[in-house]
């Protein structure tokens, strides 16, 4: 990932790199996670909603408009076996090449299980849309699944003709108590090959000796910047960054 300027990451949407904010037909839309408490359960029901704004004036804040209903829920009739408890963080990209036959692709965290939903693992699922309002689940199974613990928080970039999904993993083995960042690659956005080598980021410093996770990876002027959430043994949290070339260390 440290190649020439000609190999800059291709932004997975319109304009510069953005997490989930996209410009489409003069309408800005943003997906977010909503928590709805069920009076019959001590656990919240998590779902995805969409906000939209017709016009944004530079330098001014505006109120966003909500859709009346969530776009995906863990209680939908067509919910899959691995997402029947909770849905978590989403990332949405616009695919101009229409590899899936649709303009927009959403990857999201999901928790569930075919036998005991609340005791299941967390996996990454996929949905598609042509207007960012109406979404359909694309596969019967998750696109990434490690069967235990957490596989989540996907962040998508395109490097050359390869789509790269950065994500974090945690608790894949019973004795594993750390969280780390890893990645998978795909040519069609549907079938992903997991990287099985050394982890991109894992706990090594006093500020991230518990969790080094939740990636946001961008390339700027020949340098790859890997931002992540760092958590230490005192449960203190902050945003840290790793780079593809030595740039020194931040002052404490």
Topology:
Blueprint: E1 22-24, E2 27-37, E3 44-53, E4 65-66, E5 72-73, E6 86-94, E7 104-112, E8 121-129, E9 136-137, E10 150-159, E11 162-170, E12 179-186, E13 193-194, E14 211-220, E15 223-231, E16 237-243
Antiparallel strand pairs: 1-2, 2-3, 3-4, 3-5, 6-7, 7-8, 8-9, 10-11, 11-12, 12-13, 14-15, 15-16
Overall description:
- The chain has 252 residues and is mostly beta strands.
- The chain has one domain: Tachylectin-2, Chain A.
- It is built from no helices and 16 strands.
- Strands 1, 2, 3, 4 and 5 form a five-stranded antiparallel β-sheet that branches. The chain has a four-stranded antiparallel β-sheet with strand order 6-7-8-9, with no helix packed on it.
- A hairpin with a 2-residue loop joins β14 (211-220) and β15 (223-231).
- Residues 1-7, 10-28 and 39-46 have low confidence and may be disordered.
């Amino acid at each position: 990932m440290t190649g020439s300027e000609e190999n800059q990451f291709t932004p997975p949407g319109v304009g510069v790199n953005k997490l989930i904010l996209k410009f489409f037909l003069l309408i800005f839309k943003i997906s977010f996670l909503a928590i709805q408490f069920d009076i019959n359960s001590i656990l919240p029901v998590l779902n995805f909603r969409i906000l939209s704004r017709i016009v944004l004036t530079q330098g001014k804040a505006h109120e966003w408009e909500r859709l009346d209903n969530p776009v995906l829920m863990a209680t939908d009739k067509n919910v899959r076996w691995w997402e029947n408890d909770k849905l978590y963080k989403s990332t949405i990209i616009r695919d101009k090449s229409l590899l899936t036959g649709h303009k927009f692709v959403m990857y999201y965290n999901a928790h569930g299980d075919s036998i005991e939903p609340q005791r299941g693992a967390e996996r990454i699922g996929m949905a598609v849309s042509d207007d960012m309002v109406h979404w359909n689940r694309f596969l019967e199974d998750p696109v990434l699944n490690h069967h235990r613990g957490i596989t989540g928080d996907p962040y998508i970039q395109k490097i050359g003709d390869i789509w790269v999904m950065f994500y974090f993993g945690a608790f894949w083995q019973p004795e594993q108590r750390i969280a780390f960042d890893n990645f998978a690659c795909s040519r069609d956005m549907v079938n992903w090959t997991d990287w099985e080598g050394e982890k991109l980021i894992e706990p090594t410093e006093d500020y991230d000796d518990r969790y080094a996770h939740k990636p946001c990876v961008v390339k700027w002027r020949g340098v790859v910047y890997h931002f992540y959430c760092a958590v230490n043994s005192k449960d203190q949290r902050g945003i840290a960054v790793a780079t593809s070339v030595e740039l020194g260390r931040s002052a404490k």
